[in-house]
Every structure is written in structure tokens, then in C-alpha cells.
Specification:
228 residues, 2 domains, five-stranded parallel β-sheet
Length: 228
Amino acid sequence: MSDLPHILVVDDDRRIRALLQSYLRDHGYLVSVAASAEEARALMQGLAFDVLVVDVMMPGEGGLALVSGLRAQGQMVPVLMLSALSDTSDKIAGLATGSDDYLGKPFEPEELLLRLKSLLRRYGAQPKANGSLKFGEFVFHLASTSLDQNGVAVRLTSREREIMKLLCSKPGEPVGRDALAEGGTVSATRKVDVQINRLRQKIEADPTNPRYLVTMRGAGYALMAEPQ
């Protein structure tokens, strides 16, 4: 598994998703985002997360219902709940669903980071900035999201970096196309196949017969890599 704890941010506010994704990545975490409970469930089918950051008030299924449902299914991943509702009764309601912590909006990113670190300490996961995975002549560095071939940098687009990070979160195991799309729309999942083919052009001697970035029929894609 990757040395970087993987955090899932679930919030219908695009600005908050972008802010937290950028901020937490800068502090050594692998971050995925979902705009709804439905998207979060799809991502959780293909990826394992160390912490969920969940907004209480979302259209459709809200954060309280999402967490309550996860707990009912026996999923005990720690949850930090976010809410603009700051009354004590609202905090109690959030914790009663099985959430592990509760943070009111607006919040300082530094405080959220400290709360996440506390949850990760409690559950034994901490970020390590020097993790890397090796496959053949290639090494992917998790902290910098850079790829080397025999010590020479391989140019990756920002989307290719995202896909490589997600694949490296489960080396040797399939990651679903919906999870790689990080959006769940039909058009987004179709684009994943194109992006995978472009990555193969960069890392495979024979892209039509890949050794490292392989297709798991009916399950997604997997990167045959190992921690260095």
C-alpha cells in the first residue's frame, strides 16, 4: 500500500473541495474528492481511505445519512464531520451517527489539519513524504508525484499524476474506472481509458501488451508496482 494516508473529502461546495484537496496534498496526503454521497460511495467501492471529511448539508443524501449508512454496513473508517450548523445539538447529532470529530464552518485549514492528524494518530496512519514505488525501470515518487526512468524524469500531465497516485494507493490491486475518474460521470469514465493508453505509451515497451499498467477485466486497472 502507499505510504501516504488517503483522505476522501465529501462536500457539494466545489470551492471547499478544491481548497482542501490542494492544502492537504501540500501537507503530504493523498486526497480524493466527491461532490455527493453517491460519488463517495462509488469511490469507496474501488479505494480504501484512511479518513473521510464529510459535509453535513448536501443535496440528496446528507452527510449524517451517509455516515450512519456506512456504520450500519460495518465500515469503521474515521470521519471528520463539517457543518455550518454550530449548535451543541447539531454537534451531538453528528457524533451520534458514528462520526469521530466535528468541525464547524467556517474553519481554518490549519485546525482541520490538526484534527486529521489526531484521527490518523489514533488509527495508526501518518504521512511519509519519501514514499516511492518501483516497477521495471521506473520509480514513482508519491510526495512529488513525479516519475523517473533510470533516474531521468518522465513528463506527466496533471491528470496522469492523479491517476498514478490513485493506482499507487493500491499497488497490484484493481482500481475501478469510476474511482479513477473522480467524478463518476459517463464522459469522465470514458476519458480514463484514453488517459490510461497515454500513460502506457510512456511506461510500457509494448503498450498493446502491458506489463505494468494492466487491465483487470470487470474490475478496472492495476499498476504492478512495489514499495521501494
